[in-house]
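Deliverable D2.4 — example input (structure tokens):
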């Protein structure tokens, strides 16, 4: 194992402990809606530049190192299924914690989401129209700050906001992260790959804190994303059972629900270990959705008995959110 790979895995392991997780081409662009501090750039990383790249079980991968005006430099792994030929447009699924999605031999806990296995199988079976996956790596140091829904902070008591900033979050970064996704990365993907660019073909998914930011992306940008999947959504916000953060998230959701007039929203949870903390809070969110969801919003929550809070559990049920968001059944 290379020193670089060891260092990368150690960084992600430290982040997981803190936050409970997880001759190249060059493109430059300045962002549109809000001026970025530096131009966006994406540099393709070949195997000889970085041999610690996922081995595909299906399809192929392209890795980019991206520099952003809104977030720190990071890797983005693109999965292209066997159906991708550069001619037929594919749907796009953006996923967080990109270093945990494809290859357990490269992750800190030797687990993975098996996205290429599950996605490739569903496409081959004809249960899903072809799609590509954009796996955005997290930054271990700022993962919590980037994935914590920034607008929900306004619904927290002042003392809790200050404590959150001081002890856990630092400066909020979720809105900057979404600007990176929507103003920089998405235009690059749309220009570089043959994809469907409409809202109805663009989706976002993640787990734990990645579930929160997926929900947040949909509610902040319903004009861009047609659906979101939030697996094992980290409703407690931090690391212990509480009601303050879940209530703030519910207030935020109630404010934003009217915007989801033709969208899909998926939640799920397990019942073991960390996931057991989510049970009452997911029930409260489900009640809110039942009472206030707009007529055009499709929503689904699934419970998985005995499932824990890890990539192995999410891989075992990944077909459920994929079929709900993008299936034709």
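Example output (designed residues):
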């Amino acid at each position: 194992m290379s020193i670089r790979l060891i260092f990368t895995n150690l960084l992600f392991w430290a982040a997981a402990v803190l936050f409970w997780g997880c001759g190249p081409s060059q493109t430059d662009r300045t962002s549109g809606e809000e001026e970025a501090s530096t131009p966006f750039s994406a540099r393709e990383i070949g195997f000889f530049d970085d041999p610690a790249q996922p081995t595909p079980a299906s399809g192929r991968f392209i890795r980019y190192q991206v520099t952003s005006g809104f977030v720190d430099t990071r890797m983005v792994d693109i999965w292209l299924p066997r159906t991708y030929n550069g001619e037929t447009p594919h749907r796009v699924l953006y996923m967080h914690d990109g270093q945990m999605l494809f290859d357990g031999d490269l992750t800190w806990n030797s687990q993975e989401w098996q996205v290429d296995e599950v996605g490739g199988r569903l496409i081959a079976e004809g249960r899903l129209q072809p799609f590509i996956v954009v796996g955005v790596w997290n930054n271990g140091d700022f993962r919590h700050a980037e994935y914590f829904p920034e607008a929900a902070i306004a619904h927290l008591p002042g003392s809790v906001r200050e404590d959150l900033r001081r002890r856990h979050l630092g400066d909020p970064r979720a809105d900057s992260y979404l600007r990176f996704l929507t103003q920089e990365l998405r235009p690059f993907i749309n220009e570089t790959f043959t994809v469907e660019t409409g809202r109805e073909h663009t989706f976002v998914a993640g787990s734990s804190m990645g579930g929160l930011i997926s929900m947040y992306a949909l509610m902040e940008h319903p004009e861009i994303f047609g659906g979101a999947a939030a697996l094992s959504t980290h409703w407690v916000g931090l690391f212990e059972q509480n009601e303050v953060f879940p209530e703030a998230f519910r207030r935020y959701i109630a404010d934003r629900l009217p915007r989801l007039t033709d969208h899909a929203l998926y939640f799920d949870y397990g019942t073991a270990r960390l996931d057991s903390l989510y049970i009452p809070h997911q029930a409260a969110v489900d009640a809110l959705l039942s009472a206030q969801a707009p007529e055009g919003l499709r929503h689904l929550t699934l419970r998985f008995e005995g499932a824990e809070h890890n990539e192995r559990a999410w891989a075992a049920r990944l077909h459920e959110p994929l079929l709900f968001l993008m299936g034709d059944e």
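The longest strand covers residues 60-67.
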